[in-house]
């Protein structure tokens, strides 16, 4: 129990971490053991993977040294949801905690990470029950995978989502608004939890 409280407090304190200039080494945020340490309660209701569409952003500028991963979320559960994450880069800001409910189809959550144009993964989830996200909860688990090809100096991306918990969650991914710019590695992801 004490270990769980320490992890929860560590996650809470991370939301207070100020944004600092991006150093040569990437910063990692989050402690993702909270979701999967109770493996006996975790059941994947539905897992989906999507190829991100390529879209040139801001006129298709040439590859920059850094790029942004931008995430938009709509909380349509009717109650507050709480994040968990394992993220790389410099946040501006971190995922909102808590994320209050809003009416569909509005979006009320946003976070961004700036990091070098490189191969990486961003993992995050929102849940109605941070004490038991894989059990008595509505939980949407999302993962962005970006692959950078140095030979062609281009990026591609895939996005996965998993519905967890016993409360009948609907996880939404909006492919028409989600994309990656192959020239700059700028990524935009739009999701919802209901």
N- and C-termini, Cα separation:
30 Å
Averaged pLDDT, please?
Answer: 81
Shape: elongated
Note the beta-strand portion.
35-45%
What's the main sheet like? 7 strands, mixed
Low-confidence region ranges: 1-26, 32-44
Number of strands: 13
Helix content: under 10%
Feature tags:
194 residues; mainly beta; seven-stranded mixed sheet; six-stranded antiparallel sheet; 2 helices; elongated; disordered N terminus
Summarize the structure.
By secondary structure, the chain is mainly β. It is built from two helices and 13 strands.
Structure description:
The longest helix is centred in the N-terminal third of the chain and has 13 residues, at 2-14. It is built from two helices and 13 strands, in the order H-E-H-E-E-E-E-E-E-E-E-E-E-E-E. It has helices at 2-14, 33-36, and strands at 28-29, 46-51, 53-54, 66-75, 82-88, 90-91, 109-116, 120-127, 139-149, 154-164, 171-173, 179-180, 187-193. Strand 12 and strand 13 form a beta hairpin. The strands form two sheets. Strands 3, 4, 6, 7, 11, 12 and 13 form a seven-stranded mixed beta sheet that branches. A six-stranded antiparallel beta sheet has the order 1-5-8-9-10-2, with no helix packed on it. It starts with a helix and ends with a strand.
Question: Secondary structure elements and their pairing?
Answer:
Layout: H1 2-14, E1 28-29, H2 33-36, E2 46-51, E3 53-54, E4 66-75, E5 82-88, E6 90-91, E7 109-116, E8 120-127, E9 139-149, E10 154-164, E11 171-173, E12 179-180, E13 187-193
Parallel strand pairs: 3-12, 4-13
Antiparallel strand pairs: 1-5, 2-10, 4-7, 5-8, 6-7, 8-9, 9-10, 11-13, 12-13
């Amino acid at each position: 129990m004490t270990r769980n409280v320490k992890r929860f407090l560590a996650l809470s304190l991370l939301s207070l971490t100020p944004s600092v200039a991006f150093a040569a080494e990437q910063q990692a945020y989050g402690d993702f053991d909270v979701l999967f340490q109770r493996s006996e309660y975790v059941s994947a209701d539905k897992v989906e993977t999507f190829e991100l569409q390529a879209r040139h952003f801001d006129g298709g500028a040439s590859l920059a040294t850094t790029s942004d991963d931008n995430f938009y979320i709509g909380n349509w559960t009717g109650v507050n949801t709480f994040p968990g994450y394992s993220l790389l880069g410099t946040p501006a800001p971190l995922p909102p905690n808590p994320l209050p409910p809003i009416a569909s189809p509005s979006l009320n959550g946003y976070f961004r990470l700036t990091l070098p144009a490189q191969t990486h993964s961003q993992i995050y989830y929102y849940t109605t029950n941070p004490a038991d996200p894989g059990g008595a909860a509505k939980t949407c688990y999302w993962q962005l995978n970006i692959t950078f090809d140095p030979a062609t100096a281009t990026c591609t991306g895939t996005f996965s989502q998993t519905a967890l918990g016993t409360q009948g969650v609907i996880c939404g991914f909006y492919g028409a608004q989600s994309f990656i710019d192959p020239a700059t590695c700028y990524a935009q992801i739009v999701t919802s939890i209901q």
